[in-house]
């Protein structure tokens, strides 16, 4: 039997070794989940799902510090931010309970035509079927809440494959679900390789795929879905921010620095490109660079750390290559631009890299922010919209007309006004368009996607 070695993101020290499953074992797990779905008598009623979710929320809250430290060690997100993630996870479970309480159908009007007379009709929700959840490393606990807890709330059996670098948080949440009373075949952890994951996705018993990860993998998996299956894909973006000459820099700078270097930039909506009006560009850049240079870099398990490691050494190599490419193409390295060992890259600020450079055109997923002075707002918007990325964007301004105009013209399924691009509330719709993804995330929207609405029509009188 093959095993998965789990290492600390910061120093590579061993954390655990977990057994992996092969294709035959994974198919057996899928069959068990599908059989549970076909047996309607086994579907947990809504009141039982609420009881299970309430017990899960209480268990996560009780183990808050332990689970935050576990997530920090395996994923590399600083402890201060992992604590926030665990708080959000508890709130996310509670949000799922609230959604379940309000998940209702509707009356369909009848008698509007002679043919529909003497009839009554209503709809109700039931589980869509088996959910295959494939997750990412950067929020190892809360992403599982969004993909697995929503399936539990909807009543769907779920098979979850976490990122191979961060399986411990996922395993913990699945164990908590079982301890709360959820039958094991309704929520199963599948530690497998990518080939086996593709088998699961393409199997006719898969009803819904929820995927968080790269666009290349997400679109490839979508093409393998069986007839009738649906999906939600959450990829990444190259999040742009426009700062005009009226922006309150005292307010904007801390927000942009946090969102640019939070989890070392390994966030799908991390601030990556900032377009700043010429009249304030020098002052903005000077203050931004000074603050970035003071960020505490180090062990994510240390409560004082603000920027931790990248998830794997090869990601440090890639970020280093991209920054060097931008430097050689004319970008000014105003801060950072160097690695610290095999796993950490210094928080970096690049000024005016070419639009064609990878740091400008592709998701960096590292602690690098690019600043571009602009003299023409129209041109700044054009450059901000140039990459095939349509996730979240932001504008900082004190002009209402600029805020309204740019909120409609900046590419993004969400545009933040006087806030950073990485803002997210777990109950809001969240997701990308075009290369950035498909469908909507967010607790209530995922529960709705994992449900189907059925109708009953009575003929009477």
- Tell me the CATH superfamily of the largest domain: Aldehyde Dehydrogenase, Chain A, domain 1
The DSSP helix count reads: 15
Helix content: 40-55%
Q: How would you characterize the largest beta sheet?
A: 7 strands, mixed
What integer value in Å does the Rg equal? 23 Å
Q: Name the shape in a single word.
A: globular
Distance between the termini: 65 Å
Which regions contain 5 or more consecutive residues with pLDDT less than 50?
none
Name the average pLDDT: 97
- Tell me the count of domains: 2
Strand content: 15-25%
User: Would you identify the CATH architecture of the largest domain?
Assistant: 3-Layer(aba) Sandwich
Q: Tell me, what is the CATH class of the largest domain?
A: Alpha Beta
CATH topology of the largest domain: Aldehyde Dehydrogenase, Chain A, domain 1
Please list the strands of the largest sheet in the order they lie side by side.
Answer: 12-15-16-11-10-17-18
Total strand count, please?
Answer: 20
Q: Which structural category fits the helices and strands?
A: alpha/beta
């Amino acid at each position: 039997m093959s095993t998965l070695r789990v290492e600390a993101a910061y120093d590579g020290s061993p954390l655990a070794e977990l057994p992996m499953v092969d294709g035959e074992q994974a198919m057996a797990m899928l069959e068990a989940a599908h059989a549970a779905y076909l047996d309607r008598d086994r579907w947990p009623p809504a009141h039982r799902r609420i009881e299970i979710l309430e017990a899960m929320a209480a268990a996560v809250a009780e183990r808050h510090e332990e689970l935050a430290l576990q997530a920090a060690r395996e994923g590399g997100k600083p402890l201060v931010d992992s604590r926030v993630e665990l708080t959000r996870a508890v709130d996310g479970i509670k949000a799922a309970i609230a959604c379940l309480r309000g998940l209702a159908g509707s009356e369909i009007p009848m008698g509007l035509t002679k043919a529909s007379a003497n009839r009554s009709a209503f709809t109700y929700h039931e589980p869509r079927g088996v959910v295959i959840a494939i997750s990412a490393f950067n929020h190892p606990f809360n992403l599982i809440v969004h993909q697995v807890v929503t399936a539990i709330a909807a009543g769907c059996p779920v098979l979850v494959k976490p990122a191979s670098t961060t399986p411990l948080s996922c395993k913990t949440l699945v164990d908590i679900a079982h301890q709360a009373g959820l039958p094991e075949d309704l929520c199963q952890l599948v530690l497998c390789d990518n080939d086996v994951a593709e088998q699961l996705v393409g199997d006719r018993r898969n009803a819904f795929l929820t995927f968080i990860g790269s666009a290349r993998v997400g679109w490839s998996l979508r093409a393998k879905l069986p007839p009738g299956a649906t999906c939600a894909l959450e990829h990444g973006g190259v999040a742009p921010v426009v700062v005009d000459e009226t922006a309150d820099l005292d307010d904007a700078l801390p927000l942009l620095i946090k969102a640019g270097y939070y989890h070392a930039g390994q966030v799908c909506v991390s601030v990556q490109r900032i377009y700043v009006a010429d009249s304030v560009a020098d002052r903005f850049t000077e203050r931004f660079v000074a603050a970035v240079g003071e960020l505490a870099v180090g062990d994510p398990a240390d409560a004082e750390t603000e920027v931790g490691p990248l998830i794997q050494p090869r990601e440090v190599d890639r970020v280093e290559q991209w920054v060097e490419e931008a430097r050689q193409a004319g970008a000014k390295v105003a801060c950072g631009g160097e690695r610290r060992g095999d796993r950490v890259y210094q928080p970096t600020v690049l000024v005016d890299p070419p639009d064609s450079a990878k740091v400008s055109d592709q998701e960096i997923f590292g602690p690098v922010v690019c600043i571009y002075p602009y003299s023409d707002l129209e041109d700044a918007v054009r450059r901000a919209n140039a990459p095939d990325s349509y996730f979240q964007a932001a504008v900082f301004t004190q002009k209402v007309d600029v805020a309204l105009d740019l909120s409609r013209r900046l590419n993004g399924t969400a545009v933040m006004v006087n806030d950073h691009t990485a803002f997210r509330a777990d109950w809001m719709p969240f997701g990308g368009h075009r290369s950035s993804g498909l469908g909507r995330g967010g607790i209530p929207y995922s529960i709705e996607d994992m449900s189907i609405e059925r109708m009953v029509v009575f003929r009477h009188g």
